[in-house]
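anyone seen this seq b4? input:
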Amino acid sequence: MLADDPDAERLIDALAPGMHEAGNPFLDWMFGDGELARTAVRRWMASERSEIAIRRVTVLEDDDVIVGAFVGVDGADMPGCARADSVVAMAVAGRAGRAVLLQRAATLAKVRRPVALDQWLLSKLWVSPAHRGCGLGRALAREFVAQGERRGLRRCRVDARIGDAHVIRLYESVGFEQRARSAETDPQLAVVEMVRES
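predicted toks r here
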C-alpha cells in the first residue's frame, strides 16, 4: 500500500490512466469529456482526502513494472472523501460545466447506494491490458479483502456494472455476493452492489 511510501506522489502519472479506466464509463459520462475526467483523476489522486488518493492505492508490480492496482476505502472515510472530491470536480468542470456536472452527479448518487461506515469499499481495481487473464485481478481482490480484515472491517463491498459479467464473476470467485441492483436502466450506469462478509 502506498500509504507507507514517502514519495508515493511520483506514481500518480503512472497510475492515473488505470484509475481513469477503472472509473469508466462513469467518469467520462459525468464530466462529458475524457480529458476533463483524466484531469480530475490526477487531481483526486494528489488530494489526501480523495476517495482515490494515491496513499489509498495498493500496487502490484512485476519486475518494477506496475501491472495492477486497487483502491480500498474505509466506509467511515467516505463522507469526507465525497466532499473533497466534489470540490475538485467542480473546479475541473469550471463555470461552464458545473450545471451539467451537478445534474450527472445527482444521477450517479441514485445509482450508488451509500457505503456503510463499517464497510471496506473496493473503489477501483485495474490490471494492465498486457497482464489480464492471468489471475492478477483475483489476486488483487483477495489482497483487498485481506487488507479489510487486517483493519478489522469484515464487510467488504464493491459496486460492479451490471453489464460487466466477467467482473461480477471475478468478485463472486473471491466470495462476494450480489446484494442490491440499482434502479438505473441505462446499461452503462446500472450497478450491482456486491458484499463479502468474513
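Residues 78-111 form the longest helix (34 residues). The two ends are 22 Å apart (CA to CA). kinda curious what u guys think
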